[in-house]
Amino acid sequence: MTEPTGNVPAVGGLAPGAAAGGLVPAAEIVVTEQSGAPAVNATADQVGEPAVVESVAASRGPLAMEAIGLNKVFKLGRGAVLQAVRDVSFNLYQGAVIALVGESGSGKSTVAKLLAGQERPTSGEVIVDGKPINVRNTRSFRAYKSHVQYVFQDPFSSLNPVHTVGYDLTRPVRLHQPGVKDVPAAVTALLEQVRLTPAAQFVVKYPHELSGGQRQRVSFARALAAQPTVLLADEPVSMLDVSIRLEMLNLLDDLRTRLSLALLYITHDIASARYFADEVLVMYGGQIVERGPAEDVTQHPAHPYTQLLIASAPDPDNLGSSLRAGNVVVGPGGAIAGKAGNVGPAQVGCPFSNRCPIADDKCRRENPALQLLTPVRAAACWRLDVAASPVAGGSI
Fold it and tell me: What are the residues facing 88 on neighbouring strands?
């Protein structure tokens, strides 16, 4: 495979390398995190010792949440199971943005639901404030939601169409801020935080009377009503017009800075992750296949899947182009396809092996664990000597 060019398309018309509303680049390394428990499914077990990766997000602020060895297996009936998440471990820090990147079906949203308490892990732990989380009843779930809030992809379906904006914000204020005496003033403050002004104009509106961007801002305000320390944003800009996506990301960036939020940004757009996140985790087949500082991962991708994600991102300077590498074709629409009828994750060996242009027999037999490229970079690939560029991998 040829060495990656490192050209990541612009987001919302912003040229690569330009400042995006004061977004701060990745910080220095101060803390170490380690992969957790082994995978549940024997056929999905990763071979080799897990890499100990230093997190560039750690210097932003205190540790807010830990995901340790998360696995999620869904029963499909008649003995069939689907392992949606395989041994996923990472930390979230106050004031930092971690981007979870991958195509549809890679397990990103399932990870977010595990962190939000909406799904129970088959194995592994979620730790907040040093304590393992075990949400089993309404009271414990409500208490957990005071720390962790989830922002959904579609703002229209996540808001009740028969209730006004005022109602949608009043209820969580009363639920999570019982000491507040002036609830209308608190609702006004929330709307002003997400830049919906004048607030009196929006309090009486229904969701269908708002634009997509305004509805998503209401979703942000509703999440902030709980005064959380962790915000899980699942594709928060994918349903919005391209013209306002950067504006919305800048709003999120401002909120996480001012409120010292630990933010998990879930997206299929690796280009936006470059500008917005401190650290990028690339997922495929339910597991993390590459991780590291956002700038490094997007400019010098090491894993073949990360390279194809970047190559498939729309490039306004090269419309209609396609990348052909071995048996993998990346078309102008951004779709990644392998051999006909064989495009899903492999069940044995590396999950990307049946779509990878450089896979060999070992890749099809054994699933590699994350291997260190640098103290802050790791990738799960047996062929890093071929796939990783010298800049990404150093001496491999």
Answer: 70
Number of C-beta neighbours around residue 13 at 10 A: 10
Band of pLDDT at residue 238, cut at 50, 70 and 90: confident
Give the gyration radius of the chain's Cα atoms: 21
Amino acid making up residue 167: Y
259, 58 contact by CB (below 8 A): no
Give the domain ranges of the chain: 31-147+228-302+369-386
101 bridge partner residues? 267, 282
Q: Report residue 328: phi and psi, to 5°.
A: -110, 135
Q: Could you report the per-residue pLDDT of 121-146, keeping only the tens digit for each?
A: 999 999 998 888 877 777 778 888 88
Q: Which pTM does this prediction carry? A: 0.80
* CATH class of segment(s) 31-147+228-302+369-386: alpha beta
91: pLDDT strictly greater than 70 = yes
Amino acid letter for position 337: A
Per-residue pLDDT of 283-331, as tens digits, reads 999 999 999 999 999 999 999 999 988 888 765 555 444 444 433 444 4
Q: What is the 3-state secondary structure (H, E, C) of the chain?
A: CCCCCCCCCCECCECCCCCCCCCCCCCCCCEEEECCCCCCCHHHCEECCCCEEEECCHHHCCEEEEEEEEEEEEEEECCEEEEEEEEEEEEEECCCEEEEECCCCCCHHHHHHHHHCCCCCCEEEEEECCEECCCCCHHHHHHHHCCEEEECCCHHHHCCCCCCHHHHHHHHHHHHCCCCCCHHHHHHHHHHHCCCCCHHHHHCCCHHHCCHHHHHHHHHHHHHCCCCCEEEEECCCCCCCHHHHHHHHHHHHHHHHHCCCEEEEEECCHHHHHHHCCEEEEEECCEEEEEEEHHHHHHCCCCHHHHHHHHHCCCCCCCCCCEEECCEEECCCCCEECCCCCCCCCCCCCCCCCCCCCCCHHHHHCEECCEEEECCEEECCCCHHHHCCHHHHCCC
Distance, in Å, from the CA atom of 111 to the CA atom of 259, rounded to the nearest integer, reads 24
